[in-house]
Structure formats: structure tokens, C-alpha cells
Design brief:
Distance between the termini: 154 Å
Strand content: 15-25%
Helix content: 40-55%
Structural class: alpha+beta
Low-confidence stretches: 89-93, 623-627, 799-805
Number of strands: 30
Length: about 950
């Protein structure tokens, strides 16, 4: 027993000394390791930050240079920007070709390897630099540049043939009116920067700096690792530090690298503008902590010596205190066996004596406490039973509240097992909880990014982040489970689940359905955008594609078509078409432009016939087919169409189609129908604007005509009066001359010299000719004056200002007035006019407007003949009446109107003339004037043979 106590006391003291020694060694080691680790992390962080700034500065410098280069006027000129053509012309005069221009730019840039430019069709416009390098980089850069923002790195830094590094930056070239003209690609030499980044200076024997970016589930390494120069990529799971840097995190910590080595690493993302990029600086832990290992060995040797000395001293002391302890041990055994009357017989005056007395008092108190403890155990057992019943009741109430919530609630433990999944969560997600790994949540529950195309990364889901200890607020997701008709947008808030010790035990998320709100926001955005386009556009040709894009793009449809009603042919014709970018809809759009639909034919024809909106959720469920062969090939399933209405009249139809089946959405249908009414009002405003302009033109022309006629009439009256007097006096002089000639014989006898002078003067002035032709000359002069007077009267009567309120017009007079206004032009061009005017009654209409109608038709006819340069040009005008209508036809043998242009000739601002030679309002205003008179304007044309316009007017009622 003595030896046992002594051994234990010896061992106790030895352990105490050993523990103290170990604590001292550990404290020194930990302190040293902490200080050294801090210094190493600071060094790694500094190196990583330095390399990051250098790389980001270089990449942004190259982006900025590419953007500036794309904005040069010469570049826009090379791609066909007319505003930049003067600069291009100047360059051409100096003999500078596009490739030569790029070579000059390349020769002035030491760090630039190649430049090339492509137009919007992907054709190479110009290139400079090694052809092999361009052929190596161009396919990758073109595919990578599609869909990226302007100035982005199409090809990240990569090794090229011959050594070195190159990257490709691409920028869209746009005109001053923001039209896309093409793309500029620049390949700078990044060799010096990448060499500096890979330099392991200040990082010892095992340290290195690595740059990487994410492609799929792998990380690309442009700078090969120090230990494996052939390694260019690693799985993202094999390099957690670089993976965290790519996701946007930055830190310095201890981890495992791609080779399985224990390393210290500082990592950080490249920053804004370079997503999916990361940079690390790392050093092997073994090399970093080598001084700490040496210090530990030294302290262990010293501690071992102290331990052996302590054991010897503790053995001697233990022997002295063994006897009193043995007596205490016997008493303790008795008490442990249940004999609470046992007492310790230790009479020493030292601490052991005090321990024996305390032991005895403890034994007495222990007896009293046993009885009290048994009583309290009974009480606590009853209280615990009551608490368990209350807890079950509270749990039941809380579960009922969660089940009644309209928002979804999901709770998962730290292993990813679902602890709570309330009914609202099942309804919103369209699925029941499944026991799957958290990395499979996005795929199993069909969770997508808000763009509805990319799967949401499982590690970035709010519940996954909450399980890692993050707080997440208002994160938007899209759920596309097959049980949900059109998918669901949800807004998620997440928090970590913490136990009573403060440790993270899982995560909890609360979310609600925002689909209806997003649809309302999209519809409001569509209404605002459409109203803005109509306010800023000059014509339906300009506004139509923008309106289709605004509606189809924001409401997620694949195709949009706008049809206009051709009243002459009683057909629906395509006026504008739009398709979602990236889809193969070219064939459908091409066919749509050439298709004519009858009333009731297909979806647009039915809407035209009924004047009411219509929605087809799924073509496979209706008897009448919706799709033409092109739509069948594209797999279109759903569509809707609404009329473009104005005062109950259907002016056109606007429709949208989708490859997916779509349930009927009354709100979208009503909103689009309202936009159709706005488009109809827009068309009315365009027509009224043209008519107002023409009315102002007629008023100005009438005032000018009246003023010119007034100014000409005054001198014309003087000339006419003087000619009448001159005619009278000339006849009197000729009569007087005849009387003088009766005395010529007497004058010759009396004054032969005077008679000779008279004969000479008569021969000089041609007296016989004057006497014979003077009357005819005066008569033709009077006819010329009368002709001028008639022209003046026609000029005054053309605008009919004095009969503005008259609603009756003479067709013959209107035709004659229009012919007088254009007679000079027709004569100069050698164009003959064949008038076949039958007697017709008065018609209902404004004389001034009818004058303008016939003048516009005659001008168009003369222009059509002039385009053919033919010498036998002829305009035929006929007027007939039948069935209470007067029909006037203006036909020419000019160039004719192409069949594809014919449906649009009455549209406002539509013209086939070059810029600056026509406004596109002539026939539109003419059509409007005829329509205002209650008539109609029809046209027949054959290309190369001529055109015939037919004006049909109602006969005016008889006046007594």
C-alpha cells in the first residue's frame, strides 16, 4: 500500500512537472508558430496583393486601349459608317489601305502582337500581325466574344507558339447613332507580366504564385506550377483555395494544394470586371515552420532532464506522507461501503490532521445530505414530467403555425438532412423533400438563376450558405420543376441554425412566390417602353420592330410579327417581324414577309375577322392548325394575337409565338390589346400630321397664287387695253395710207424726188409685208395676252380659297386646273396628255383638295415616265359616271410599281426615291384627301408597262 501511494505521489509530481514543462514548451512553440505564421501570411498576402494589382492594372490597360482604338473614326469608316466616310476618303487619297493602317498602329505598339477587325457578318475587314498567331487565336476569340460585354477579354492569357503569352480583347464598334458596325480584336503580348507573376521571389524553395480562372468544373492555369511545368489545368475540387478566390473570397490560411501538400496560402479574386478569376501565393508548411520544429526539439530535450530530476525529489517526499494517507484511505473505503459512522484517526497537527477532521465532518454531513437528496429527487422527477408535457404542447402549436404559413420554410441540419419542410414549401417548389446530398439540390429541385437558363450552383444556394454560417437576404431564384406550369420565381432569406452552445447546427430559409409581381413589373415595363417608342418614332416601319422586341423580349416569347391590313387586296401583309436572338428563326421571318392571310385564316386572320384578341395555349389541342411549314419545323406551340384598332376599325394584327405551351394569361392579353389601340392611335396621328402639313401647304400655295395673280393682273390689264387701242389705230393708219396712195400719180408728177424718197422708205420697212401681216401680229399678241390671263385665273382658282366652304366640285375644272399647273413640265419632257372626259355631274368634295389630288397623280405619272427615258410618254385621263359615282382614271406608260412595293405606297413616309428626293407623303396625303371626300383611291400596276390610279367620288346631291 505504501509503495502504491508513494508511486502515485511520485508519478503525480512527475506528471505535474511534465505537464508544466509541456505547457511551457507548447506555449513557446505556439507563440513562436503564431508569430512566424503571422509573418508568413503577411508576406504571402503582400505578394498576392502586389501580383493582383499588377495583373489587373495590365488587363484593364489593355481593355481601355482596345475600347479607345474601337472608337477611332478610321475604324468606324473601315466598317462602313457614313459619318466617318470623309476621313476614309482622305486616307484612300493617300493610298492607305485598311491593312496598312493596322500595320502602322501595330508598328507603334511594342507590346501588341496582332490586330484584326470583323464586320457584323463575321467577315474579316482587315488584319495585321503574324497570320499563324491570328489563325490560332481568332476562332477561340470569336466564339468567346459572343454574348460578352464590349471590352471583355475574349481569350484569357495563354501560351502561344514560339513562347510568350498572349490574350485577345474584343470591343464592338458602334456608329454615332449606336448601330453595331463590327468588332475589333487586339492581341497584346502579356509575356513580361505573366513571367513576373510566376517569379517565386521572396517565397523560398517551395513557394509560388498561381493565377487561374474557372471553366466548367476545372481551373485553367496559364502559369504552370513550379513543381510541374506541364500542368495547365486542375479540377476545381482539387484546389479549394484557388476555387474560393474565383468565387470572390479572399483570405490567408492553411490548406491542402492540388498535389496534396500541406501549404500556407493567401488567395484573392482579381476584382470587379474579372469574374471567375483568382490568384494565390503559397508556401509549403514544412518549409514555413522549420524554425518552429527545431525549437520544439530543443525544448523537449530540456524538459526531459527536468522531468527526471522532479521524479527523484517527489519519491522522497511521498514516502513521508504515506502513513496518514493510508489511515484516511481505510476510512474512505468504509464510508464508500455505506458505513457513514466510520471516522478517520489522524491526530497530526499539520494539513493531514486538518484533512482527517474535515473528512469526519464531511461524513456526518454526507449522512444528512443523503436523506435530503432522496427527498429532492422525488420532487424533481414530478417537475420533469410536467415540463415534458408542456414542451410537447408547445411543439405541436409551433408545427401548426409553420404549416399554416403562406411562405415556404425549410430547415436542414449540418449534414444536409431536411428537418422541416412545410406544406407551403412543397407547393412553391413543386416537390417533396428528398434525402439527397446538398451538392445535388439544384439539379434535383430544378433551381435556376433568374435568367432561367443556367442551373444555380448548389454551393451558392441560400440554404447551403446558411449552413456555412452566412446570413442571406432577398436572393432571387427560379424553380422550373415539371409539376409547375410556367416555373416560379421565389425570393429567399436564410440564416444559420445555432445550438445552445453557439455552434452552427444547420440552416433555415424562408421564401415566398414573386412570380405574379415579376409578371406585373414586366407588363408595366412593356407598356412604358412601347409608349416611349411610339412617342419617339416617325413611322410604323420605324416603331414596329422596336415594339415587337419590347413585348416579346420582356415577356419571354420567341417570335413576334406585326401585320397591316391591305384594304385594296383585302389581305393581311407582314409589316415588321422580330425573333429572339440566338434562335434559328430566319426561315420563319423570311416566309412571314411574303405570306398574305385572308380573313379568318389562321390565328392572325381570325383576330382580323373578329376584331377580338385570341390566345392559343397549345396548338396540339386545337383542331385548326396554327403553324405553317416553317413554324412546324421550328416546333412552335403557343401563340396569341391582338388587333390594332382605331374607332372599331381593325388596321392590323400583332402576334407572338413560343416553342413552349403557354397557359392563357388574361392580364398579358388585355395589356397587349391596349397597346394595339395605342398603335392604332399612333397611325391616326401620323395620317393627321401629313394632312395638316398638306393643308398648310395648300393654304400657303393659295395665298401665294392669289398674290402672284394680283400682281400680274395689273400690268396685264394695261397691255390688253393698249393692244386694243393699237389695233384700232393701226387699222386707221392703213386706211389713211390707202387714201394717200390714191394721189401717188399726182405726187410723182408734182414732186418726183419726194415720190422716190417714199418708195425707198417703203422698200426699207417692207410696207407691203407690214400692211399684210400687222393685223395677224396684233391678233396673235392679243391671244398671247389672253393665254397669260387664263393662266393667272387658273392659278387663282387652283387653291379655291374663295370657295373653301363649298362641298361641291367640278371634276373637269379640277383636272384642267391641275393640267395648267403641270403643262410646262409635260411639254418640256415631251409627254402627251390624252383627255377622254365624258360629261359627269358635280361630285361631293372640296375643289382645292381635288385640285391637289389630280396634281399629285399627274406629277407621279410624269415622274414614272421620266424614269424610263422614253420618247413616247403618254398620260391618259378618263372621266366617267355610273351608279351614283364619278370615276376618274389617270394612267401612264411609265416604269410601273414592283409587286412587293405596291402594298405600301399609301403608307406615310414610305418612298422608294433616294434620300433627299422624296418625303413619302405624296400618295399617303392623296389617299387621305380622297378618303376625306368620302371616296376611294385604287391602283393597278404592271412593272415595266405602267400604272393606273382610279379616283372614285360620290355624286353631289342636286341643288334646286
Amino acid at each position: 500500500m505504501t509503495r502504491s501511494i508513494v508511486s502515485k505521489l511520485t508519478l503525480f509530481v512527475g506528471v505535474l512537472i511534465g505537464v508544466n514543462t509541456a505547457l511551457l514548451i507548447g506555449a513557446a512553440s505556439v507563440a513562436t508558430e503564431s508569430i512566424l505564421g503571422y509573418q508568413i501570411r503577411e508576406r504571402l498576402t503582400t505578394v498576392a496583393a502586389d501580383r493582383q494589382q499588377i495583373l489587373v492594372r495590365e488587363l484593364r490597360s489593355q481593355q481601355s486601349r482596345t475600347s479607345r482604338f474601337a472608337g477611332w473614326t478610321r475604324i468606324r469608316a473601315l466598317l462602313g459608317d457614313r459619318e466617318a466616310e470623309p476621313f476614309a476618303s482622305a486616307s484612300d487619297r493617300q493610298g492607305e489601305t485598311p491593312s496598312r493602317f493596322l500595320e502602322v498602329v501595330l508598328s507603334h505598339s511594342d507590346d501588341l502582337l496582332a490586330i484584326w477587325i470583323r464586320d457584323t457578318n463575321g467577315r474579316e475587314v482587315a488584319a495585321s500581325g503574324p497570320r499563324a498567331l491570328i489563325d490560332e487565336l481568332e476562332p477561340v476569340s470569336r466564339s468567346a466574344a459572343e454574348g460578352e460585354e464590349s471590352g471583355w477579354m475574349a481569350v484569357p492569357p495563354r501560351r502561344i507558339a514560339g513562347g510568350g503569352y498572349a490574350a485577345v480583347f474584343c470591343v464592338e464598334v458602334r456608329s454615332r447613332d449606336n448601330r453595331r458596325l463590327g468588332t475589333v480584336f487586339m492581341a497584346p503580348d502579356l509575356g513580361p507580366v505573366m513571367t513576373f507573376l510566376g517569379d517565386p521571389r521572396d517565397l523560398g524553395e517551395t513557394g509560388e504564385v498561381l493565377v487561374g480562372w474557372r471553366r466548367g468544373d476545372r481551373i485553367l492555369l496559364p502559369i504552370p506550377p513550379r513543381g510541374d511545368p506541364t500542368l495547365t489545368e486542375v479540377p476545381i475540387s482539387a484546389f479549394p483555395a484557388l476555387a474560393e478566390a474565383i468565387t470572390g473570397s479572399f483570405n490567408a490560411r492553411r490548406t491542402i494544394d492540388y498535389q496534396g501538400h500541406d501549404v500556407l496560402v493567401a488567395y484573392r479574386p482579381l476584382g470587379m470586371g474579372f469574374p471567375e478569376w483568382g490568384l494565390i501565393a503559397k508556401l509549403d508548411t514544412e518549409e514555413a515552420y522549420a524554425p518552429v520544429f527545431r525549437l520544439r526539439r530543443l525544448l523537449l530535450v530540456m524538459g526531459s532532464g527536468l522531468l527526471f530530476l522532479g521524479l527523484g525529489a517527489s519519491n522522497a517526499i511521498a514516502r513521508r506522507f504515506a502513513r496518514p494517507i493510508r489511515r484516511l484511505a481505510r476510512s474512505a473505503v468504509a464510508v464508500a461501503s455505506g458505513d457513514l459512522s466510520a471516522r478517520a484517526e489522524v491526530n497530526s497537527a499539520d494539513e493531514l490532521g486538518e484533512m482527517g477532521a474535515a473528512f469526519n465532518r464531511m461524513t456526518e454531513q454526507l449522512g444528512r445530505s443523503r436523506a435530503e437528496l432522496e427527498r429532492r429527487i422525488d420532487e424533481r422527477t414530478d417537475a420533469l414530467a410536467r415540463s415534458e408535457r408542456a414542451l410537447r404542447e408547445q411543439t405541436h402549436i409551433l408545427q401548426s403555425v409553420v404549416d399554416c404559413l403562406g411562405d415556404g420554410v425549410v430547415v436542414a441540419d449540418s449534414e444536409g438532412r431536411f428537418v422541416l419542410f412545410n406544406p407551403a414549401a412543397r407547393r412553391i417548389l413543386g416537390n417533396d423533400p428528398m434525402a439527397v446530398d446538398p451538392s445535388e439540390w439544384s439539379r434535383k429541385f430544378d433551381v435556376y438563376l433568374p435568367d432561367r437558363s443556367a442551373i444555380y450552383p448548389s454551393e451558392d444556394l441560400p440554404l447551403s450558405r446558411a449552413m456555412r454560417g452566412e446570413s442571406v437576404d432577398q436572393v432571387e431564384l427560379f424553380i422550373a420543376h415539371p409539376s409547375l406550369e410556367d416555373g416560379t420565381y421565389i425570393l429567399v432569406t436564410g440564416r444559420p441554425l445555432v445550438d445552445e452552445r453557439g455552434a452552427i447546427a444547420g440552416g433555415v430559409v424562408v421564401f415566398h412566390d414573386t412570380t405574379r409581381r415579376k409578371k406585373s413589373e414586366s407588363r408595366l415595363a412593356v407598356q412604358y417602353e412601347t409608349t416611349r417608342v411610339l412617342a419617339e418614332s416617325e413611322s410604323l416601319q420605324q416603331a414596329g420592330p422596336k415594339i415587337l422586341e419590347a413585348i416579346g423580349g420582356r415577356l419571354d416569347w420567341d417570335l413576334g410579327v406585326l401585320w397591316r391590313v391591305d384594304r385594296r387586296a383585302d389581305r393581311l401583309r407582314c409589316a415588321a417581324a422580330w425573333s429572339r436572338p440566338g434562335g434559328d428563326f430566319t426561315r420563319f421571318v423570311t416566309i412571314a414577309w411574303g405570306v398574305e392571310l385572308l380573313r379568318g385564316q389562321h390565328l392572325p386572320g381570325r383576330v382580323w375577322a373578329t376584331g377580338e384578341p385570341e390566345w392559343v395555349p397549345d396548338v396540339a389541342q386545337v383542331a385548326e392548325p396554327l403553324r405553317n411549314p416553317a413554324a412546324e419545323a421550328l416546333g412552335l406551340h403557343a401563340g396569341f394575337a391582338v388587333p390594332i384598332r382605331l374607332q372599331g376599325d381593325c388596321l392590323g394584327v400583332i402576334g407572338f409565338f413560343s416553342r413552349e405551351a403557354r397557359p392563357i394569361d388574361p392580364a398579358t392579353l388585355a395589356m397587349t390589346a391596349s397597346l394595339g389601340s395605342q398603335i392604332g392611335q399612333f397611325l391616326e396621328r401620323q395620317q393627321m400630321r401629313g394632312r395638316v402639313a398638306q393643308s398648310e401647304k395648300l393654304a400657303s400655295l393659295g395665298m401665294l397664287s392669289a398674290g402672284v395673280a394680283h400682281e400680274i393682273n395689273n400690268p396685264l390689264a394695261y397691255i390688253a387695253n393698249n393692244l386694243a387701242v393699237l389695233d384700232r389705230d393701226a387699222r386707221s393708219l392703213i386706211d389713211l395710207l390707202a387714201i394717200y396712195e390714191e394721189g401717188r400719180a399726182e405726187l410723182t408728177l408734182a414732186r418726183p424726188d419726194l415720190a422716190n424718197r417714199i418708195d425707198e422708205m417703203a422698200d426699207e420697212i417692207g410696207l407691203d409685208y407690214v400692211r399684210e401681216n400687222l393685223g395677224r401680229l396684233l391678233q396673235s399678241t392679243r391671244q398671247g395676252v389672253k393665254r397669260v390671263a387664263d393662266i393667272v385665273n387658273n392659278l387663282r382658282g387652283f387653291a379655291r380659297l374663295d370657295r373653301a366652304e363649298d362641298n361641291r366640285a367640278d371634276v373637269h375644272e379640277a383636272i384642267r386646273s391641275a393640267l395648267e399647273m403641270i403643262r410646262g413640265r409635260l411639254d418640256r419632257r415631251g409627254i402627251a396628255v390624252d383627255e377622254r372626259l365624258c360629261p359627269v355631274p358635280m361630285v361631293t368634295g372640296s375643289p382645292a383638295q381635288l385640285n391637289q389630288v389630280f396634281l399629285n397623280l399627274l406629277v407621279n405619272a410624269s415622274q414614272a415616265i421620266e424614269q424610263t427615258h422614253r420618247l413616247d410618254g403618254r398620260i391618259t385621263i378618263t372621266a366617267t359616271s355610273a351608279n351614283g359615282e364619278v370615276v376618274v382614271e389617270v394612267a401612264d406608260n411609265g416604269c410601273g410599281i414592283p409587286e412587293d412595293v405596291l402594298p405600301h405606297i399609301f403608307d406615310p413616309f414610305f418612298t422608294t426615291k433616294p434620300v433627299g428626293e422624296g418625303t413619302g407623303l405624296g400618295l399617303s396625303i392623296t389617299h387621305g384627301m380622297v378618303h376625306d371626300q368620302g371616296g376611294r383611291l385604287e391602283v393597278d400596276s404592271t412593272l415595266g408597262e405602267g400604272t393606273r390610279f382610279r379616283v372614285v367620288l360620290a355624286v353631289a346631291p342636286f341643288r334646286s
